[in-house]
Amino acid sequence: MTSSSDIPIPGPDDDQVADPKLTDLVAYLDGELPPADSEKLEQQLVLDAPLRQCAESLDRTWQMLDLLEDATASGEFTRKTLSSIQIQPKSISSPGGSTLRTLAAKWSLGAIALWMLTGFIGTAFGLLISRQSQTNTTNPADAEILKDFDLLRNYQRMRQISGEKFLRDLAEIPLADTGSEK
Amino acid sequence: MVSQSLRNQYLADPDVQLMLRVSTGDHSAFEELVLRYQDRLVGFFFHLFHDRPIAEDMAQETFLRIFRSRERYEPTARFSTWLFRIAHNLASNQKRGSSRLREISLASSSDAYNLQPNEKNLAEKSALMPSRQLDSLEMRDVVRMAIEELSERQRTAVVLHKFEEMSYEEIGEVMGLGTVAVKSLLSRARIRLKEVLERFI
């Protein structure tokens, strides 16, 4: 059995392998050793004075940590923390608060969609009415005038035609024979 | 996905119940959790950083993270274990940031004895011993410096065990280690503390 005085003291490096005996001794002092191992270690402590002394020293230095200054939250801590998360007023922050907020958001989106739809329908309806009115402005008399518009436009030239006979004679005159020019 | 049996295991924890209420939008449950854990969290960070404003900022950040993750919350551990796991991660990130700064600062300084400031102070305190007994404030400084000599992981394990009275298993859950690793970590830490402090007993 190794005496505690022969046990190498590890440095602060985490990667160093700790002595299994000292590891068990610390676990025993921390109440983390299984009952069977604890009993075995207690028997060793009775027999091994340096190991016992090491245990006492480990315990005393551990108690020295009680000298460390402790700190608790300042009086303003709760208020600061809660204001940092911007807690909403009670009426909204109740358990159903998030549901209320979700509903409000949904209503806003619904209202926007409704306004957009109304605008679209209104525009379409306006265009339709405008086209309808353009079509309806032509009364029967105007339609008749429009039908004979070409005749009216060439009225001056048409006046030179003396009568029906002139038109028949005109129709009988053969057109210039383009083939004879060849 | 958390299995139902694992979930049920922690549902008996009243703080888990409070957190489940927070996840459904009950802010009064969150306030209750802040009140229950604020002193413990500030104490935890204070023992690691020895600075009250930093401890309060870190504790506040921990609560903020808890609140932000409320909608994704699944009871996979006791609430305190989950809380301290977040706190431990925050502390590790903070330490990594500050140790980089310290490396730069130490590289630029010219210490004749090439001693870390804590080691130098401990040596000075130790030199006083034969002439007179250290008063309680000086002893407190000595213990604090001895704690600061530990590695970050050892220090965290010591604080969780000594001041939060956590078992090896709980410490393992918080630090992401197995029970055997925690046993070894605490053993090395306590032996190191004994080595530094026994001359002051």
Overview of this protein structure:
- The complex is a heterodimer of chains A (182) and B (201).
- By secondary structure, chain A is mostly helical.
- Chain A has helices spanning 20-29, 35-47, 49-63, 77-84, 90-93, 97-136, 140-147, 149-153, 155-158, 164-172.
- Among the domains of chain A are: 4-65, no CATH class; 140-169, no CATH class.
- Chain A contains 10 helices and no strands.
- The radius of gyration of chain A is 55 Å and the shape is rod-shaped.
- Chain A starts with 19 loop residues before the first helix and ends in a 10-residue tail after the last helix.
- Residues 1-12, 88-101 and 178-182 of chain A have low confidence and may be disordered.
- Chain B is an all-alpha fold and 201 residues long.
- Chain B folds into 2 domains: 7-109, Orthogonal Bundle (Rna Polymerase Sigma Factor, Chain: A), CATH 1.10.1740; 115-201, Arc Repressor Mutant, subunit A.
- Helices cover 75% and strands 0% of the residues of chain B.
- Chain B is built from 10 helices and no strands.
- In chain B, helix 7 (136-148) packs across helix 10 (179-197).
- The termini of chain B are far apart.
- The chains are: A mainly alpha (182), B mainly alpha (201).
- At the A-B interface, helix 1, helix 3, helix 4 and helix 6 of A face helix 3, helix 4, helix 7, helix 8 and helix 10 of B.
Question: How many β-strands of chain A, per DSSP?
Answer: 0
CATH fold type of the largest domain in chain B: Rna Polymerase Sigma Factor, Chain: A
Structural class of chain A: mainly alpha
CATH class division of the largest domain in chain B: Mainly Alpha
Task: Looking at this protein, list some descriptive labels.
A: 182 residues, mainly alpha, 10 helices, rod-shaped, disordered C terminus, B: 201 residues, Arc Repressor Mutant, subunit A, 2 domains, globular
